[in-house]
Design goal:
The structure is a homodimer of 511-residue chains. The first copy, chain A, has two domains: 441 residues, Alpha-Beta Barrel (TIM Barrel), CATH 3.20.20.480; 31 residues, no CATH class. Chain A is 44% helix and 14% strand. In chain A, helix 5 packs parallel to helix 6.
Chain lengths: 511, 511
C-alpha cells in the first residue's frame, strides 16, 4: 500500500492548512493477483462456446439501429448487411479485437491513484446507477446530487476502493440533461481517484472529454483518463445512443467497458453455456466495433449477468448461475487477451442484512477467483441495483480488504515458512510471544476495520450493535472527518465555469 | 437429488399413519463436484511445505502423553522415542498413511442417506460443539438437550444438509458423562441421516459403537456407520483422551476426522505457509497413528484453522488467511490421497446479521472451491462457535443449495448450448416464452427457499422482514411440520433401554 495524499500542484496557505487538518488518507494500490484463476470450463467447453458465438455473429447477426455510420464501418470491414442487421463472417470480429490493448493505465489526478487495468490486476469501483438511496435513517427515497457527493467522499476515504466510479446514484433532483456535469464535477473535485464518464448521450460524452481536458490539460486525449460503461442492449442489439458515446470515447482514446447487460432467462437463454455464447458474441461485436472506430482504443470485455427468479420474474444476485457465468466469461476474455469486467457486491436484498452479506460475498469471491480486472459495483449496491446504501458502501468496502489479502497468495519465503517459530515453540507451547510472531504480527492477518471482534459481554454492554448500526456510525464518522483533496483553484474554477456555461446553454429536461 | 423417505423395515398401522401425515421430505444427495479445485499453492510451494513437515516430525517430534500403548506402537513402527516425544523419521508417517482409504461410504439407517466421503464428493454436516444457543426470542443462553433435539429435527428437514452431525450443541442440562447417550439417541431416532459418535472419553466412544450395533445390527462393525471428530491439541500434541477415542473407533472400523484445531498466531505461526506445515505434520502423525491401530481404518485429513485478531486476541472467521489455509490444506490432503475436512459456515458475528453473511459465505465459497470432502459446521454456527443459532441454521442450510448448483459445473450438451433458443429469439427479442425456456426453466436456476425476492412494495407491506425474521418464521414452520422418520419400535426400545442402563450405571458428573 502507499499512503499519504499529495496534490499535483503546490497549494497556498489555505491548502497547507487543509493539509495539516486533514486526516491521513490510507489508499491501497489496485490489486495484483499472485493467485491462479478458477477455470470452470474445460478447453473443449471453451471451444464449443467460441465456435457457437461465431455462428451467432455470422448466422443471426447483431443490430446497429439508427446508426448509418456504424453500418458503413461494418460494411467496409467486410460484414454482410441486411437492413440494420450486421452479419459478421466467422473470425472477423475476433481479428478486429486484436488491436485492443491487453492492459492499459487509467490516469488519476493524483498519479499515486493511477490504476492498471488488465493482466493480473484488479481495480475496485463502487456501485453504478441506482435511482434510490437508503439513507442513514433507514428511509428509501430518490437519490439527490448531495447523496452523490456523499458517495464520492466515502469512496475517496475508503482504503480498499481504487476508483471513484461513475453514476454512484442518479441525482434525480438535477435535470436529466445536466446531471452528468454535476457528477463529473464532484468526481473531479471531491476525490483524486480515477473516474468514469457520461454515456447517456454522445454530447454528454463530449462534455466528459472536455472537462477532462480542463482537469488534465493536453494529456487528457493522449491516454485514458476515463473508463466509461457502454451497455449492450441484450440480446444482440447495439443502440445508437450508447454506440454514439462509445464513438466519442474511442476517438478520444478514452477507455470503455463494453458490456452485455443480461438478466438470464429474459435477455439470454436459461442456461450457462447459452448465456456465455451470447455474452461472447455480443462482446466480440462491440469490441470489434470500438476498433473499427479507432484501432487501439482501450476497452474492457464486460459481462453483467444475473439470473431471474422464474417464480416471480425478479432478478436475483449472488446465485450459483451468476458465479458460473462470471468464471466462464473471465476465461473467454482471457483467451481474447482482453481486460475483463464483472459485477462486484451484488445482492437482491432490500436491507444490508444477512441476505446482503451472503449474496455480496458470493459475488466478490467469484469475481476474485474469476480473474476480474475491473469490478464495478464493488461496494454500496443494494436491492438489485435499485438502491445505493451508505451503510452497505462501507460494509462492502471493508470486505474488499479480504480480496486484497487473498490475492496476495502465500508467502513461502524463509520468513513465511516460519520453521524457526515451530522449532522455538515445540509441542504444547504457544506462539503469541515467539520471535517470529513479534516480528510479523502487525502485518500477518487482515483485520476488518468495521466488523465486531469484541467479546460478547463487551459488545452487549455497548448496546449489541448489528453490522448495519456499526456501518451507520462509520459513515457519520467518515463524513465528519472528510477534507477534500487539494486542487489548483484555477482548475476548480474553470471546471465550475464549464458546468455553469453548459447548464445555461439548454433548458432543463426531465426525461 | 433423491426424494422421499422410506424406513428400513415395514411399519405397523401407526407407522403408516405417520407416513400419510408426514410432509414430503426433500433430501439432496451429497455433492459430487463437476468443477476443478482451486490450487493456490504451486508445486514448488507444496514441496517446500511437505519437506518442512517431515523435518518437524523428525527433528521436533510430536507428543503422545499418558499413552504408553501409543508410544509402544510408535516404537515398533520405527520412531525414535524420547520420553513421550515421538520423533518420526522422514517418510515414515507418509508411508503409514498409505493404508488409509481414499474414499469410503458412511452408512445411514436410511440407505438413501448414505454418504460417500472422499474423491470428488462433498458431504455437508451441521455445527458442532457450541455451549450456548441463541433462541428464537433472541436470548443467548446455555444449550439444553431439547435444543439439541430441535437441531436434529432441523437437520433432518433441511434438503441440502446430508449429515445429522455430532454435538450440535452441548446439552448442558445433562450430566457430562451421560449427555453423549442422549445425543446419540436423538440422532438415531429423530433423523435417518448419518451421524457422528462421542469422543470425550474412550468409554463414550465404546457406548457409541454399542448403540450402533443395536441400530445397525451386525453390519455396524463391518463398515463405517459413524464419522467422529478427533481434534489434535495443536501444536503437535496428541492427548490420551482423544487418542483413546480414536483407538476405539479405528479398531471398530469406524471413521474419524483427524484434525488440527488451530487458532493461528496462538497455536501455529502467524504465517500461512508455517501454519500449513504444522497442519500437515500433525495430520500425518495422527493419521499414521490411526493406521498403526488398524491398517485400513477410514480417516479424514482435517484442518480447522482460523486466525486471531492481534489487537484483541479474539479468534476471527471468514478471513482471507483462513481461506488460503483451507485451499492449501486441501491440496496437501489430495497429494496424500486422503479425504479432506474443513469448516463450513464460520463467522465471529454475534448476530445472524450482515457480518455473519459475509464471513459465512467467504468460508463456504473457499470450502467448495478448495475441494473439501466433509464440511463440518456447514450451518448454524455463530459467535466463533460459542453459539448455535436456529435462525442461522436455516439461513446457512439454504445457502448450501448454492454449493450444490455451483458444483454441478456447466452443461455443454446440445440443450445446454441453447443455440436453438438464440436462433429463435434473435436480436432485440426476449427469452421468457421461447421453447428452450419453457422446457428448462423449472430446473434452470437455483432458487432460495428463504431469501426475499419480492418487489420492494410487497415486502414493505409485509412488515419489511430482514433475513433473521424470515429465518425465525421458517424454523417455527419446520418444527410444526416435523414428523420423525419411522423406526422399528423394538430397535427404538432397545436403544432407550441401553441409554437408561448406562445412565444408571454411574453417578452424574458435571465436569
Amino acid at each position: 500500500m502507499r499512503e499519504g495524499r499529495r496534490g499535483r500542484r503546490g497549494g497556498g496557505g489555505a491548502a497547507r492548512r487543509a493539509e495539516r487538518s486533514a486526516p491521513r488518507i490510507e489508499a491501497a494500490r489496485y490489486i495484483t493477483r499472485n493467485i491462479p484463476d478458477f477455470e470452470i470450463l474445460t478447453s473443449e467447453a471453451l471451444e464449443i462456446i467460441e465456435a457457437n458465438a461465431e455462428t451467432v455473429l455470422e448466422e443471426i447477426g447483431v443490430t446497429f439501429g439508427d446508426n448509418p455510420g456504424a453500418l458503413e464501418r461494418w460494411r467496409q470491414a467486410g460484414a454482410d448487411l441486411r437492413g440494420d442487421r450486421v452479419h459478421i463472417p466467422r473470425g472477423l470480429a475476433r481479428t478486429l479485437c486484436a488491436t485492443a490493448p491487453s492492459q492499459f493505465t487509467q490516469h488519476a489526478r493524483n498519479p499515486e491513484r493511477n490504476v492498471e487495468i488488465g493482466g493480473r490486476n484488479l481495480v475496485l469501483a463502487p456501485v453504478y446507477g441506482p435511482p434510490f438511496v437508503r439513507d442513514l435513517d433507514g428511509v428509501r427515497r430518490y437519490a439527490t446530487i448531495e447523496d452523490f457527493r456523499t458517495f464520492v467522499k466515502l469512496g475517496y476515504l475508503s482504503k480498499w476502493v481504487h476508483h471513484s466510479g461513475g453514476t454512484l446514484c442518479e441525482p434525480t433532483d438535477v435535470a436529466v440533461n445536466k446531471r452528468h456535469l454535476d457528477m463529473l464535477l464532484a468526481h473531479m473535485t471531491l476525490s483524486d481517484k480515477p473516474f468514469m464518464g457520461a454515456v447517456t448521450e454522445p454530447s454528454r460524452a463530449r462534455d466528459s472529454v472536455e472537462m477532462c481536458e480542463i482537469l488534465f490539460g493536453e494529456a487528457a486525449r493522449q491516454a485514458p483518463h476515463m473508463t466509461s460503461l457502454i451497455n449492450i442492449n441484450s440480446p444482440l442489439t447495439f443502440d445508437a445512443v450508447m454506440m454514439g458515446a462509445l464513438e466519442v470515447y474511442a476517438e478520444a482514446m478514452q477507455a470503455c467497458i463494453i458490456s452485455p447487460f443480461i438478466v438470464g432467462g429474459a435477455m439470454a437463454p436459461v442456461s450457462v453455456a447459452g448465456t456465455l455464447t451470447q455474452v461472447l458474441a455480443e462482446a466480440l461485436a462491440g469490441i470489434a466495433y470500438s476498433q473499427l472506430v479507432r484501432p487501439g482504443a482501450p476497452v474492457i470485455f464486460g459481462a453483467f449477468v444475473t439470473s431471474i427468479d422464474m417464480n416471480s420474474g425478479a432478478p436475483t444476485f449472488g446465485t450459483p448461475e451468476a458465479s458460473k457465468i462470471l468464471w466462464g466469461a473471465g476465461q473467454l476474455a482471457r483467451r481474447l487477451g482482453l481486460p475483463f469486467r464483472s459485477g462486484g457486491g451484488l445482492t437482491g436484498a432490500k436491507l444490508p442484512d444477512a441476505q446482503a452479506g451472503y449474496e455480496t460475498a458470493n459475488t466478490l469471491n467469484a469475481a476474485l477467483t474469476g480473474g476480474v480486472n475491473f469490478m464495478l459495483h464493488a461496494c454500496g449496491w443494494l436491492e438489485g441495483g435499485l438502491v445505493a446504501s451508505f451503510e452497505k458502501f462501507v460494509m462492502d468496502a471493508d470486505q474488499l480488504g479480504v480480496l486484497h489479502s487473498m490475492a496476495a497468495g502465500v508467502d513461502v519465503s524463509e520468513n513465511g515458512q516460519a520453521m524457526d517459530a515451530i522449532r522455538e515453540v515445540g509441542p504444547g507451547g504457544h506462539y503469541l510471544g515467539c520471535a517470529h510472531t513479534q516480528a510479523n504480527f502487525k502485518e500477518a492477518f487482515w483485520r476488518s476495520n468495521l466488523l465486531d471482534y469484541r467479546p460478547y459481554e463487551t459488545w452487549a454492554d455497548d448496546g449489541a450493535p448489528d453490522t448495519q448500526m456499526l456501518a451507520a456510525n462509520r459513515v457519520r464518522k467518515m463524513l465528519d472527518e472528510y477534507v477534500a483533496p487539494e486542487i489548483d483553484p484555477s482548475v476548480a474554477e474553470a471546471l465550475a465555469d464549464y458546468v455553469a456555461r453548459r447548464k445555461a446553454a439548454e433548458p432543463d429536461a426531465f426525461a
